[in-house]
Amino acid sequence: MEFAPKQDQSENTVSIPVGGPIQRTQYPYVTGTSVVAIKYKDGILMAADMGGSYGSTLRYKSVERIKPIGKHSLLGGSGEISDFQEILRYLDELILNDNMWDDGNSLGPKEVHSYLTRVMYNRRNKFDPLWNSLVLGGVKKGQKYLGMVTMIGVNFEDNHVATGFGNHLARPILRDEWHEDISFEDGVKLLEKCMRVLLYRDRSAVNKIQISKLTEEGATSFPPYSLKTYWGFSSFHNPTVGAEGSW
Amino acid sequence: MTKEHANWSPYDNNGGSCVAIAGADYCVVAADTRMSTGYNVLTRDYSKICKLADKAVLASSGFQADIKALQKHLAARHLIYQHQHNKQMSCPAVAQLLSNTLYYKRFFPYYAFNVLSGLDSEGKGCVFTYDAVGSYERVGYSAQGSGSTLIMPFLDNQLKSPSPLLLPAQDAVTPLSESEAIDLVKTVFASATERDIYTGDRLEVVVLNADGIRREYMELRKD
After folding, report:
1. Roughly how many angstroms between the first and final C-alpha of chain A, as a whole number?
2. In angstroms, rounded to a whole number, what is the distance separating the alpha carbons of residues B142 and B148?
3. What pLDDT score was predicted for residue A237?
4. Which parts of chain A register pLDDT below 70?
5. How far apart are alpha carbons B139 and B164 in whole angstroms?
6. Rounded to an integer, what distance in angstroms lies between the CA atom of residue A112 and that of residue A122?
7. ipTM score here?
8. How far is A236 from chain B, CA to nearest CA, in Å?
9. A46 Cβ partners below 8 Å, 6+ apart?
10. Is A240 a catalytic residue?
11. CA–CA gap between residue A103 and residue A114 (Å, rounded)
12. Coil, strand or helix at A18
């Protein structure tokens, strides 16, 4: 081995096969955490924080992870931010082509959700997934719709959905307190409750919340704000009171 | 250098159980409506039953994205068949198509555990049971999915199917009436829900007979 010509030992050396890009095992680099969404009286309410984490560093703090799609839908994404931006580009093209028909018809949330499911599933089939969990909500002709797709193509619709940690922490709260035709104010309070729990318990959450709503009239994104949190527990003030000698 | 290994799996098990029982002139298909991933429930209201043709109903449990894709594929093929032959596909024909479709992906399978059921051309109930890569068999009753190990022995006990090795060949369809079969299915799911964490929420029962297709629901434990 010593006398053989030196081989490049780096893991990154691979001969490029003819006729296609190299498929690489993917790891997410810059990620967004949970998205939570509910149906309410007039349409859909969706909440996400504005953090983009680079591993354990909270690198970006103004990332918009909820975007309006066409006239009738809102898309929220968690997971790899660059893949989310790629999906926005795909949807841009989809909506553009839909508009170009100029036939008075427009893609509703069901259709966009179906499209996204197919995209995610097909990428999974090629072993080159888009590393996202997406929430797609909207209203068209009075019909409310709220669905979710994961990176391997698992999809469903329900009255309330969440991604990532939201499934563990927010869904139980929603199952208990959500009800049909919940008002806007109650809906926002409910989402804030979920986001507060996530803020306390999810390491990658940041305290800058973006809430968007979508009704028959269209999408509205509210300006980002912070949630009030409480840290004044006595055991935080005097943490060693129960264990003499520790620090 | 060791090859990089993927740290994500293209498969997931979204749980749930499916059952079908064939009768002399009817067929009962049932599946729970819970969709889960790991220890989480994603939704309590997801149907695993899909009508492919007038006389063929497919119930599948396993990886939901693969099941959705499989159902879409079969529905599309059925549409083409209708255009070409000007008639609906018979249940045994759908059975063969499903088997071939599954085997086509023998080396990257659809993670779907299927029970196809309906009425054959004589109007008798038929049930076909599959594995993930398409091997199938016509039987009198079957259970697939996360609760199948709990359900199947009970069905074996109650439905006493004659051995397929006997001569002359004996009918595998159950002599039970339609309502008795529906009651049996409800009992079986109530029991499976107790011990299988992935089965529960709600039961959807679809009944096919000479009058057409009917759907019933029953609440199950949600824990």
Report:
1. 55
2. 8
3. 83
4. 1-25
5. 9
6. 15
7. 0.89
8. 32
9. A35, A36, A37, A66, A74, A76, A135, A137, A211, A212, A213, A214
10. no
11. 21
12. coil
A34 close to B40: Cβ distance less than 8 angstroms: no
Residues of A in contact with B46 (CB under 8 A): 156
Rounded to whole angstroms, how far apart are CA atoms B192 and B43?
19
B111-126 tens-digit pLDDT:
999 999 999 999 999 9
Q: How many CA atoms lie within 13 A of A17 on its CB side?
A: 6
How much is the pLDDT for A89? Answer: 97
Q: What is the DSSP letter of B23?
A: B
Please name every residue paired with A39 in a beta bridge, in sequence order, or none if there are none.
A44
Do B98 and B74 contact (CB within 8 A), yes or no? Answer: yes
Dist. CA B128–CA B18, nearest whole Å: 12
**Residue pairs between chains A and B whose CB atoms are closer than 8 Å:** 58
**Tokens 């999408």 sit at which residue?**
A219
Across the interface, do A152 and B11 touch by the CB < 8 Å criterion?
Answer: yes
| Region for B180 from its dihedrals, namely left if φ exceeds 0, alpha if ψ lies in -120 to 50, beta otherwise | alpha
CB count in 10 Å sphere of residue A28: 18
CA distance A219 to A214: 4
Q: What is the DSSP letter of B174?
A: B
Tell me how crowded residue A189 is: count the other CB atoms within 10 A of its CB: 13
Token pair 């797709």 is at which residue?
A149
Structure tokens at A192: 């804030």
